[in-house]
From TrEMBL:
Ranges where the Urease accessory protein UreH-like transmembrane domain occurs: 9-211
Keywords: Membrane, Transmembrane, Transmembrane helix
SUPFAM superfamilies named in the record: MFS general substrate transporter
Name listed for the protein in its UniProt record: Putative membrane protein (DsbD domain)
Length: 221
């Protein structure tokens, strides 16, 4: 995965999982807990793990699709350079939107898409069986989220569906500790600490976006 650093992927994914992903997925986490009634802590842990694996599977599917798209459009070095430039700017924009939040973040994390996914999810919890529970986890992976968009953009740049799927797999696995913890306890981390992690994560995105745009510019200079 040329120009895409694994350490950067892990750092952004891990920091974002505690500072942004838990809050972004809080609605789905509350739906998830509806299945936990009468279950032991061990059963809750097992169910939460299965739920997250279904969510991660959704990320991998999206990663493979976006990576395949990147492979199709990157048919020459000049076009590849242009793609790096444009997506680098998009990544920087996502990072700025996450860093400063407000209206920019509302644009990135579209409320209409969120409501649509949540509406489908609510129809799945009428029957509390394992199939619907796993489907809920899978739908969780399709929530509009700036962090997910960031990694999908990296997947496009990888121009390979396997590499892109791997990027999304690593991202998903890095969110696992925070999401499992959130299944048991909400708001366990100090808000100031979460804000610091969030700012570091968003800053890495912005720097990486600018760097990728620079690589794209140099390729066509």
């Amino acid at each position: 995965m040329q120009n895409i650093n694994l350490y950067m992927i892990v750092s952004v994914a891990f920091l974002s999982s505690f500072s942004h992903c838990v809050g972004m997925c809080s609605g789905f986490l509350s739906l998830q807990t509806l299945f936990f009634k009468g279950k032991s802590k061990r059963e809750i842990l097992m169910l939460s793990t299965l739920y997250s694996l279904a969510r991660i599977f959704a990320y991998v599917v999206l990663g493979a699709l976006f990576g395949a798209f990147g492979a199709v459009i990157s048919f020459s070095m000049q076009v590849r350079g242009l793609i790096f430039f444009i997506i680098g700017l998009m990544i920087a924009f996502i990072g700025i939107a996450l860093l400063f939040r407000g209206e920019l973040l509302k644009f990135v994390e579209n409320q209409k898409v969120l409501n649509f996914v949540v509406r489908i999810a609510k129809t799945r919890i009428q029957k509390k069986n394992l199939a619907n529970f796993l489907l809920l986890g899978f739908l969780n992976g399709f929530l509009p989220c700036g962090v997910v968009y960031y990694f999908l953009a990296l997947g496009i740049l990888s121009a390979n569906f396997i590499n892109s799927a791997f990027i999304m797999l690593v991202f998903g696995l890095c969110t696992l500790p925070a999401m499992l913890l959130a299944s048991f306890v909400f708001g366990i981390l100090n808000e100031k600490f979460k804000d610091i992690m969030f700012k570091i994560s968003a800053s890495i995105m912005i720097i990486n976006g600018i760097y990728l745009s620079f690589l794209g510019y140099r390729a066509n200079a």
